[in-house]
Design goal:
CATH class of the largest domain: Mainly Beta
Largest sheet: 9 strands, mixed
Structural class: alpha+beta
Low-confidence stretches: none
Order of helices and strands: HHEEEEEEEEEEEEEEEEE
Number of helices: 2
CATH topology of the largest domain: Immunoglobulin-like
Number of strands: 17
Distance between the termini: 117 Å
Length: 265
Amino acid sequence: MNKKIFVITILLIISFCVAPVVLAEVMTTQQREAKMAQLRLQIAQLQLRIAQLTGSAAPKCTSNWQIGSWSICTGNKQTRITTDLNNCSTPTSRPVVTQSCSTKPIDISANGSDGPLNIFLTVGNGATPNGAGVNLTSNVNLQWAGTNVSSCVASDTAKPTVFSGHKAFSGNQTVTLSGTIPATASTNKISANFKMSCVSTISGSQVSDNITVNLFYTVDGYCNTNWQCQAWSACVSGRQTRTCTDYSGCGSLTNKPAITQVCTQ
């Protein structure tokens, strides 16, 4: 047997033998209970030491974490210091020490995107052809969060306006963006810019962030365009124009004929 283990075992046996003798002394009940508690602690410590030396049991240690404050946001990351006050050799349940962050005093996003956000719509799914062109409609969830800001005001370029007025420094709002692409248009999208402006409580200056949302009209594979065009207009300043309409109502600009051309008077 290892010499250390032998010595500790002898001490453990002595502790068990001494206990009855100690309790036999003339002492008050309170003194006797205190003495027994001390002996139990010493015996437990000896048993733990034997277990460590023989490898029969690992010491149980539960971490007691002291958590520091998050650092300044640098490179979109924050860190903090955590200290195990119990100094366990194998720490348990360690708190998170890094997290993502934004260096912007105010940050706005749409549908979880920092933008620009592109939404593609088809007939029956947000796009509706009509006599004037194609109407596009989609719900957009705007989220914003500010740090050290106040007096926040929302604005947009949508027509009609759907995001405006005073707002809390952080929050979210679902808006409905809609618009019509005229039949004579040379584009297949409508766009709107959403902006949040606040006052920095540190510098007193205005800070802002914005995001652009685009609604695109696309065609599924089962819609064949049927373009019919009116006659060219009179030649004015070397240009002629005409109106072309897709009578299939696909809403796509695929194969759309030219609606302007150079001319001579």
